[in-house]
Design a protein that fits this description.
This protein is α+β, with helices and mostly antiparallel strands. It has one domain: 3-Layer(aba) Sandwich (hypothetical protein tt1805), CATH 3.40.1530. It is 25% helix and 26% strand. A five-stranded mixed sheet has the order 1-5-2-3-4. It is globular.
Amino acid sequence: MTEARLKAGIIVQAAIRQAGMRGIPATVVRHGDDDAGQVYVVVNRGRDIGCVLLAPSRDYDTGKTVWRKPLGDEPVSEAEADAYIEKERRIDPDLWVLEIEDRNGWHPFDDM
């Protein structure tokens, strides 16, 4: 059985609220479709470290949402993350982009 899918706007609002409760800046860089857009997350660890990109996916065994790192576990430049997102945006114009700024790499999707 698959997990019910939350609307993109609700996912983003919850992530921003969780970041705010920790005093971590979170910004909507691109507003997609409130209901059906995918949410991509850029975890910006600072100019000297780089970014980690998170994209939602389905676990085929459980049907639950999992967050994969399409550019790998190691941080990449902001330009590389932006280029990947732009490529995905051309495929899915409803795409959201949320940026979280935390040097330690925290993001709320470990908790969701």
